[in-house]
Specification:
The protein is an alpha/beta fold and about 525 residues long. The protein folds into 4 domains: about 200 residues, inorganic pyrophosphatase (n-terminal core) (Alpha-Beta Complex), CATH 3.90.1640; about 160 residues, 3-Layer(aba) Sandwich (Rossmann fold), CATH 3.40.50.300; about 80 residues, Helicase, Ruva Protein, domain 3 (Orthogonal Bundle), CATH 1.10.8; about 50 residues, Orthogonal Bundle (Arc Repressor Mutant, subunit A), CATH 1.10.10. It contains 24 helices and 14 strands. It is globular and about 75 Å long. The termini are far apart.
């Protein structure tokens, strides 16, 4: 095992370049890891005692000072040297706590603290170690600066850094970050990256722009659910949620984390095509099958073979098309329009809807047998207004990913004061508008947004025509009948989960069963 441990922040080119520079200064004899501010104390305490020295690069010290000092005391008892390097001075209120000048060594925080102002963290590393030649220092400085050219070597490394953060957040895989730092230290060209690094890079390029953001317990549960079901590549998934909640993003995550990820991901909106054309879209056609069919065409199932087919707004599919889809799912065989040959396909189906499918089944508008076929696993995505703690996280992540820096606390607070009937899609639209208009006053921006769109969500409500108690479906006058309808509505909402429904209603299981009888 190496004698040194380098800890640096997550997902900034400057952090990676500085860690690689420190690795070179230590002759490659160090392990490296990414940590956030709130992880620093626990990582130092848990991992640090195995090393002779721990170097902390550029990770802020504004959180958990007590825990950091406790970790440093533990390392000091183990005779582990601790060093903190930054390109900016540490805040005065923390400087005295983390490094008390002139104090007894046993009472100090970090053994050494370099916080002299520098242009970059690479310069701070160079100033501390003094072992980088001019050529190496310039090399790392070039990689520390954000670039626009994504096809250059520097641009590809910076995309890899984002990919490493993406793998950390979505799969809990921290190894790609270490591999990126080591690869930069060794000057490994992108074409020669190891297989797992290339895979992470390609996954991010393909799916990373649609990351499933959020820090709420609901989103954490969904991410865990995705990790579990993804490996079961034949399990069909039905995603329920309002428009704009990220249902297609979840479908992409399921595909990306599954054994099918090298295969195609084909998305189709069932409401986008007239019912007479759905058979052709699903199964394709042979040349001459109808007027205008001047060549053979593959349908969605053939295009998604050995991959994933995502059918959005599946509730909009007419009953005739539902029968065609059911047969294809049951038998794994399709026949092109105008053809006679059976074609075997291997497709994982992920479907999504913003409608209440159980209710549509009961109303005869959706086939019960198809509903059972597509809902092996159910994932329900809560609207953004029910997980407000995710608003700031999603907004700040999007803002930084676009290279626009961080949002201010005032801007984040303003964003969190709106309900977002259009969910995540609406939030990102507002942020794009802020950037296009160069508007930094988000309170003003949101007031204008609400005024312009005040009629949109009333007119375009996804669920009003299906909700008991709405203008279209009024409650009956009889109290017992009204209660039964409401209980059944809640039971449907929670996908016939008795425990969830009775908890939502605040009644016992026996009372629930009485009203459902």
């Amino acid at each position: 095992m190496n004698k040194n441990l380098i800890l640096t922040g997550w997902s900034k080119p400057e952090y990676v370049a500085a860690a690689a520079a420190a690795l070179e200064a230590l002759n490659g004899k160090a392990d490296v890891a990414g940590v956030s501010m709130n992880q620093l104390a626990s990582v130092m305490a848990e991992r640090g005692e195995k090393y002779s020295a721990v170097y902390v690069l550029g990770v802020g010290l504004k959180m958990n000072i007590g825990a950091i000092l406790a970790a440093l005391k533990k390392l000091k008892a183990k005779k582990v040297k601790t060093v903190w390097l930054s390109s900016m001075p540490v805040a005065p209120e923390f400087a005295a706590e983390v490094c008390i000048e002139g104090a007894d060594p046993a009472e100090r925080g970090f053994d050494e603290l370099l916080d002299a102002p520098c242009e970059s963290l690479v310069d701070a590393v160079d100033a501390y170690f003094g072992k980088l030649d001019a050529e190496s220092a310039d090399f790392y400085r070039a990689y520390a600066k954000e670039v626009d050219d994504r096809n250059s070597a520097v641009g590809k490394y910076q995309t890899l850094i984002k990919a490493a953060g993406f793998m950390h957040r979505t799969r809990g895989d921290d190894s790609i970050y270490e591999a990126a730092i080591v690869s930069l230290y060794l000057r490994v060209k992108p074409l020669l990256w190891e297989a797992k690094v290339k895979d992470a890079f390609e996954d991010y390029v393909r799916f990373g722009r649609r990351e499933l953001g959020g820090i709420s317990s609901a989103m954490a549960d969904i991410r865990k659910h995705i990790q579990k079901i993804s490996k079961h590549e034949r399990a069909r998934v039905l995603i329920l949620g309002e428009s704009g909640t990220g249902k297609e993003t979840i479908a992409e995550q399921i595909h990306m984390q599954s054994p099918r990820k090298k295969g195609p991901f084909v998305a189709f909106n069932c409401a986008s095509v007239a019912k007479d054309l759905l058979e052709d879209r699903f199964f394709g056609h042979e040349k001459g099958a109808f007027t205008g069919a001047d060549k053979q065409s593959r349908g969605l199932f053939e295009r998604a073979d050995r991959g994933t087919l995502f059918l959005d707004e599946i509730a909009e599919m007419p009953l005739e098309a539902q029968a065609l889809l059911l047969r294809a799912l049951q038998e794994g065989i399709i026949i092109r329009v105008g053809g006679a040959d059976e074609i075997r396909v291997d497709v994982r189906l992920v479907a999504a809807t913003n409608k209440n499918l159980p209710r549509l089944v009961r109303e005869g508008k959706f086939r019960a047998d198809l509903y059972q076929r597509i809902s092996t696993v159910l994932i329900e995505v809560p609207p953004l207004r029910d997980r407000r703690e995710d608003i700031g996280e999603i907004a700040d992540g999007f803002w930084m990913d676009m290279g626009w820096g961080r949002l201010t606390n005032r801007q984040l607070k303003d964003l969190e004061n709106y309900d977002y009937p259009g969910n995540v899609r609406e939030l990102l639209n507002i942020l794009d508008r802020a950037r296009a208009l160069e508007e930094t006053d988000f309170a003003k921006l949101l007031e204008e947004h609400k005024r312009i769109n005040k009629d949109l969500w009333v007119r375009d409500s996804d669920s009003a025509s299906h909700e008991v108690g709405s203008k279209n479906v009024p409650y009956p006058d009889n109290l017992d009948t009204a209660v039964r309808q409401h209980v059944k509505s809640v039971f449907d909402k929670y996908n016939h989960n008795q425990t969830a429904a009775k908890n939502a209603l605040g009644i016992s299981i026996n009372t629930l069963k009485k009203y459902l009888a």
